[in-house]
Amino acid sequence: MISTKVHKEQAVMIVHTLGPKGTNCEKAGLLWLKNKGVRGEVRLYETLEEALLHVKSTENSVLLGCAVYPFLHQIVFENLADLKIIDSFVMPTYNMVFAAKQHTMASDIQIVASHPAPAHLAKLFSSQVQFVTSNAQAALACASNAADGCITTIKAADEHRLKVIKDFGEVPMCFTIHGLKSIEGGSR
User: Fold this and answer.
1) Which pLDDT value is given to residue 3?
2) What is the spatial distance between Cα 110 and Cα 88, in angstroms, rounded to a whole number?
3) Is residue 153 part of a domain?
4) Nearest to 185 by CA among 48, 84, 50
5) For a Cys-Cys bond, which of 31, 41, 88, 122 suits 114, CB 3.0-4.6 Å?
6) What is the pLDDT of residue 34?
7) What CATH number is given to the structural domain containing 119?
8) Where is the Prephenate dehydratase domain positioned along the sequence (predicted)?
9) How far apart are CA 155 and CA 80, in angstroms?
10) HSE of 17 in the Cβ direction (CA atoms, 13 Å)?
11) pLDDT along the chain (188 residues), means of 10
């Protein structure tokens, strides 16, 4: 009994993943901590590659990736010497939506901001797709007039007071947990 309690106290405390606030990765990181019964926090970065640097230099930490992240394969294979996948799970994303500023007509949309992963959805509305680092960042680009519309999450659209033009619904998504090879079962 005592060793189990000590094991829990040494469990992973920090999940490094894709930000800004409101990403599906943030939601997945919080869910993973809850499901593992681990007290911890989710730290957000502009890219998973940036987050990975912090995993390598921070005690009790993991990287949470999304299976459709465009360069997840590079993160895995370029870090085989010291990183491994230690867990994975499926979680429904926030509803994915096509959104624009409140008084924008769909016919006026020329540039659509999108993370590369759901870019196919953006191409349904415009041939001019501006890539950004996350779905939440796409909403920010739209809200700040850097783009006319965006593929984003319902959460990010609501936070930026965007009008939802098309709701694609939730997407059952696989998320991966990557830890240093010195981690066994989610703890050091």
Assistant:
1) 35
2) 37
3) yes
4) 84
5) 122
6) 96
7) 3.40.190.10
8) 16-166
9) 35
10) 27
11) 41 88 95 95 96 94 96 96 96 98 90 97 97 96 97 97 97 97 57
